[in-house]
TrEMBL record:
Gene3D superfamilies: alpha/beta hydrolase
Keyword annotations: Glycoprotein, Hydrolase, Serine esterase, Signal
Record protein name field: Carboxylic ester hydrolase
Domain called Carboxylesterase type B: residue spans: 32-100, 118-274, 285-409
Domain of life assignment: Eukaryota
GO molecular function: acetylcholinesterase activity
Pfam families, per the entry: COesterase
Signal peptide: 1-28
Organism: Tetranychus urticae
Family according to the record: Belongs to the type-B carboxylesterase/lipase family.
Cross-referenced PANTHER family: ACETYLCHOLINESTERASE, CARBOXYLIC ESTER HYDROLASE
Alphabetical list of SUPFAM superfamilies matching this protein: alpha/beta-Hydrolases
InterPro entries: AB_hydrolase_fold (IPR029058), AChE-related_enzymes (IPR050654), CarbesteraseB (IPR002018), Carboxylesterase_B_AS (IPR019826)
Length: 453
């Protein structure tokens, strides 16, 4: 498992690391110098964008493949190697079902350019997903720990900490960022005791551990899956699950978009992150559906997390910056209808520079992409976002507003939704989220940037 510098799951966590780019003197050659990792030497390839050399190291193993006796167990380091390992191609994607919303298979070859317009090292990781990463049988099978997917991420963070210097990176200047389940993961690492010290800054691109999750549902779903497999008669849950083919596990999954999510328990998330009391009401029934989904699943949880984190960090001098992304990309995931507006994940093409290299985007998309890459990397480098037009981006602690990321509203901020979320959240969370049940991907993304230092 584990392909560093590769990612590509809807679920992902990227690590942005500040970096003094070593410009290669060896034009014409397409291999990088050999890099000595703690586990052995590797050699990547050199590509070029706008006359800048980009070193790519693809498919670096940070752990052993989680198969056989390693399935559903904590990650372990790969055996060291001595021959130079060629890392010039992406590894396979993590095992996962077809995306039930988009109805497309994951191929593992989705390209994310590493557009080298800024001096950063981009690290993307694979981690175990769905049942492979989050199945949990509770106390009846204590040999299978909760949140294995988070454990992979933690392991990868440690890998970065130990190895990034070999690439010219600074292990003390790591920024982690993620979208959707990736964003939830980032918020988990903000709360995780063993993740402390492994990164300095974090960007949540929509979604936190305040999103709905229920350990009883998780355990029931885990047993349901178990019962569907040929293991159902076996007494030895762990060993039998380890004996199955990965495809049998995949084929036993329900067609749920969000199944096998994180749970409180274990070293990474020792406590229940959201403790909201029930109150009565159906506050949202009159509200617009899009907005209801957005607020509940992503917008409000992210604002609330940012707000609470800001109060916590404020005591230590840290800062949280919020943004509200509202520009709908012209060419990204066209099956999201116009009426859905700026949908969940629509900030991804901008952050990764897709409008600069792929057809179909507008001039405004290109401009926003350049600006957002500047913001992300400026934040990773300096711990604060740059000026947005004429506007200074104030931290949450100074002003409870979010910077709007839209070329047509450049430099404007929004207050209304932040205030709404802070005021109504206790009310909304317990009810509507359960009533709505299934996640739908229509909503505006909303986000928090945070600096720890
Ligand atoms: C990597 O290790 C090899 C073998 O020990 C050594 O010859 C080489 O100089 C090392 N390269 C770097 C960049 O440290
Ligand atoms: C799984 O099967 C066992 C044995 O037949 C049964 O007791 C249990 O209720 C089933 N669990 C679920 C969640 O279906
Ligand atoms: C798992 O497979 C091994 C090797 O084929 C076999 O000996 C063992 O009985 C199997 N265990 C279970 C619980 O199915």
């Amino acid at each position: 498992m584990g392909n560093l510098y590769h990612n590509k799951c809807l679920f992902k966590m990227n690590i942005l690391i500040l970096f003094c780019l070593i410009f290669s003197p060896v034009h014409g050659l397409n291999l990088t110098p050999i890099v000595n990792l703690t586990s052995g030497p590797i050699q990547g390839k050199v590509t070029e964008y706008e006359s800048i050399d980009v070193y790519q190291f693809l498919g670096i193993p940070y752990a052993k493949p989680p198969v056989g006796k390693l399935r559903l167990q904590l990650p372990v380091k790969p055996d060291p190697w001595t021959e130079v390992k060629s890392v010039t191609d992406f590894g396979p994607a993590c095992f996962q079902p077809m995306n039930p919303v988009l109805n497309i298979p994951y191929t593992g070859k989705t390209r994310i350019p590493m557009v080298p317009l800024h001096d950063v090292i981009l690290v993307t990781i694979n981690y175990r997903l769905n049942a492979f990463g989050f199945i949990y049988f509770g106390a009846n099978e204590p040999r299978i720990p909760p949140n294995i997917g988070f454990q992979d991420q933690l392991f990868a963070l440690k890998w970065v900490h130990e190895n990034i210097q070999m690439f010219g990176g600074d292990p003390n200047s790591v920024t982690i960022f993620g979208e959707s389940a990736g964003s939830m993961s980032i918020s988990a690492h903000l709360l995780s005791p063993p993740s402390k010290g492994l990164f300095k800054r974090a960007i949540l691109e929509s979604g936190t551990v305040y999103t709905d999750h229920d350990v009883d549902v998780l355990i029931t779903d885990s047993w349901k899956l178990y019962n569907k497999t040929s293991c159902s008669k076996s007494e030895d849950v762990l060993e039998c699950m380890q004996n199955l083919t990965a495809n049998e596990i995949l084929n036993s999954l329900d067609n749920k978009l969000v199944a096998f999510t994180f749970t409180a328990g274990g070293n990474i998330l020792p406590y229940e992150p959201s403790k909201f009391s029930y109150k009565l009401l159906e506050h949202y029934l009159r509200a617009q559906l899009e907005r209801a989904y957005s607020d509940l699943f992503f917008v409000c949880p992210t604002y609330i997390f940012g707000h609470q984190y800001a109060s916590y960090l404020g005591k230590q001098g840290g800062k949280v910056y919020a943004y509200y992304h509202t520009q709908r990309p012209k060419a990204y995931l066209p099956f999201f209808n116009e009426w859905m507006g700026t949908f969940h994940s629509s900030d991804i093409p901008y952050v990764f520079g897709l409008p600069l290299i792929n057809p179909g985007y507008s001039q405004k998309d290109i401009s926003l992409s350049r600006e957002m890459m500047k913001i992300w990397t400026h934040f990773a480098e300096n711990g604060e976002p740059p000026m947005v037009g004429e506007t200074k981006w104030k931290p949450f602690q100074e002003k409870m507003s979010a910077m709007i990321l839209n070329i047509d509203d450049w430099g404007k901020t929004e207050l209304e939704r932040v205030e709404f979320c802070l005021k109504e959240w206790d009310y909304l969370y317990p009810h509507v989220i359960h009533a709505m049940g299934k996640l739908n991907l229509n909503h505006v993304t909303k986000d928090v940037l945070r600096d720890d230092n």
